[in-house]
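Escalation from tier 1.

The customer reports that the assembly of three entities below gives different structure tokens on two consecutive runs. Tier 1 could not reproduce it. I'm attaching the input and our single run for tier 2 to review.
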Amino acid sequence: MRRNVIFWLLPALVPLALAVCMALGAAGLGIPSLQDATGRAVFTLRINRVLAGFTVGAGLATAGVVLQALLRNPLAEPYVLGVSSGAGLGAAIAILSGAAAVSCLATPGLAFVCALVTLTIVYSLARSGGHISIYSLILSGVIVSSVCSSLLMFLVAIAPVEGLHNIMWWMLGDLQVSSGGLFLACAALTVAGMLCIWLMAPELNALTLGEEMAHHVGVRTRLAVTLGLALATLTTAAVVALAGLIGFVGLIVPHAMRHLVGPDHRRLVPAAALTGGMFLALCDAVARTLIAPREIPVGVVTALIGGPCFMMILRRRKRGWIEG
Amino acid sequence: MTAIEFSSVSAGYHGTPVLTDIDLRIEQGELVGLLGPNGAGKTTFLRCITGLCRPLKGGVRLFGEELNRLPADERARRVAVVPQEVDTPVAFTVQEIVMIGRTASLSRWSRPARRDWKVVERAMVYTDIAELKHRPYGELSGGEKQRVIVAMALAQEPRVILMDEATSHLDINHRLELMQIVERLNAEGGVTVLMISHDLNLAAEFCRRLLLLHQGRVVADGAPRDVLREDLLRRVYRCDVRVGPNPTNGTVNVFPAPRLTAERSGTDVRVHVIGGGGTAEEVLRRLVLCRYTVTCGVTNQGDTDAEVAALLGVETAMEKPFSPISAGALEAARALMQPAQAVVVCGMPFGTGNAANLQLAEEALAAGKRVLIMDGVQDRDYTPDRRATARAEALVRQGAVTWQHVADLIDALPGVREARP
Amino acid sequence: MRRIAQRIILPVAAVGLLWSCTARRPAPSGGGLRVASLAPNLTEIVCALGGEKLLVGRSSACNHPPEIVARVPVVGDFGAPSIERLLAAQPTLVLEVDLADESIGGQIDRLGIRRLRVACRGLYDIPEAIRQVGGAMGLEDRAGPLADELERQIAALRRESAALTNRPAVFVEIWGDPLTTAGKGSFVSDLVYLAGGRNIADEAGTDYFQVSPEWVVARNPEVMLCLYMADKTDTRQQVLTRPGWAGVTAVRTGRVRGGLNNDLLLRPGPRVLEGVRALRAAIGAPGQTP
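Tier 1 run:
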């Protein structure tokens, strides 16, 4: 079946995509040679970015899959519950308070912490009588997101010019890794989150039929929803701390892969992770090569490339999400 | 072995009980129907069995074990639910949906085992959806979707199946189809079935035991003809119903009482109808609807017309079954006929047994009443030397009016006032 | 009594409010020149010309010379002046570098205040800017000699610098994340040239832009000037330990300089020669441990 073919093709495509990414960059096309020092330096820089792009893309896509299953909503994506606004607020505080100039771990650290705090607030707002409803989650996500965005806008308004610029750039996404330790920590969290989400595939399948039906087939729905949200937020917070706010990947890649390999999460989760990683790494390669030596913010590239790609897939419209 | 046991269960939402003091047992292999008006607590009852609603008081046991001690996957292996409809915004195929039913038994760490595929396959064959297995669920018709849901329930390999108005939105064909599957499951597989249905007749037909809930309590529990009683149903459902026998399956049928929405008003006019063998049915019904005061006779007990008359509340003079009309019965009919202004003779066949009914008509004509006799007596005359035909012709010569259709009959009756809206 | 008061006070107040909104600012008593400078380099020029007594307003970024910081009120941020504060300072002349003509610039014009845009973005604009400011403020006698002297010294530096054969490759890192630098035609690039270095970002014709790290690494600068970095050791350490930069000559030899005065290096003003001297010290010195 076509779905099978695509699914087993993906792992084979990954090395190819990585090779293409390594061949693109502002220092010149082609994989840099390891003979001279400059070549080695460029190689190191490129491989760091490619790995970061792959990790971030995989994490965002996986988080998007979970949220679309839990919220049963095609517009769900990793930032829907206010995580992006919270992380942005944390980053803005770090940059404007000067902490970012002191330590390069300040911005990621504060972004991560604020993202987790935001989800905790959203979750506790949505609980009423010990029961979580999907609608109250989305609603409290919107509320908390607006509050964080307003605070962020306030900070932006009073920011001095350089600080403003840096906040804006962070919010557009940046895969430049400033610290190897930071990358390892975030990558470990992301990979752990993705694996746990993959293991939750049967529950995610059942939850797309609705919470009651999932309960009837034997899923502990409250636990599954809470755990799913926690894993999705952890993964998202980790990638946001590493690379800022890169949009589009977490919304579009799950939809596209659902069209191509089907909605069974046992396949969807790994397929989305691999495709999301390749997609973001390629977009980043384009972003840093197209107008070299300048760089386009990677979030711009993901939207410009991903939009038309998704529209092509949507034109078939047979498999995937049925609009109700 | 008791499949489901409720011990003094009171259950509800936010501390307010919807069910009060429910004490009952459902044994393994029973096919039970749960009836009751909206708000009586039927859905809460089901939710107590699946664990979605924690009882405020008392406990529920499933196959001897307390429900709240059972882990979720063990409970799913015992109880399956077939709801009214299942919707998913995602395009799962039928086979994938049925496989979701196996969630409680699937291993998290590996793909579905061969046994899982076999169970799914068997469930799909049982519900006759095997050829739909690769179709997207969202593209199916209502009846097909419902069978998929039943297959998903079967994939859990449950010992109890709960159906929550599972047939409500299906057409008659699919409704019967589904119920036949359920019946087979119960008979061959020994699966205990508890179904909520608003279709009282469907429940009466398929269930051997009915539970009637009213305001959170069980007010009746037993065989259909013991539970579906007019007085009980009128009290619980608060509307006028009639209960009658269903000759095809031996149980009872419930239907609403006739509504008197007369096109024309025949109030104050009394008509006596002579019929038999089902010929008076339409006449009786129409006359009653038009608010005539109707009497009937002589018919034999067990005759369809006698039953219809009883249902409609028409006073009838009756003879013993299969006996010729005796003097006593004739006297009773005469008494009913006396105050009537018109007598209608319907299109029943005439034989020696009921020829005496013609005598009633002759007496009525002599007394000056309007007599209306259905045309074509000669085709229905089974009396020796065709005496009924002669008597009918004599009646017509003396002023009886013939009629062919019920509509002409109504027009020809005396004293009809047009009912002004 | 109350009704009379209402009937009189409210209309009078309304009329007064309307009148004050539409009325022009009356000319300040004294009739002297009152100057508001909306850019830090223009403020420095004004003070270099001895006109600091005439300053009645400055931008929040104007911080030199230090004496004016306490005395002269702030009328807004650099690039975003507050019209109200500006009016309160009652200037007769507003000096600015790049206010948008349509919005704020136009507003100032409509208020009847004289506005002078001084072109002073690059190194070679500075002498002419000095003359322009001097002319507007009536300080031509100071402006002329100062501008001439500056021109002479800049020309001398250019001649010296043109003769240099061994120019170290310099990377000017204006901000670290994202990596931002300045290309050909920017002020700091010209300073680097005069200081004897070669700005590797000169290949790109634009002034301030984000640059891809691998592009910088491929060009292997010998000196890195981190303008945002104070003299704190750990920030420098982070730059030295950036993944992938270990092979860059500047990192290898430790010629990563911080603690530079951004005001000198990013502000085209009369202290330009100080800036060149600071850069010479930063670039020219051989590798040292911090």
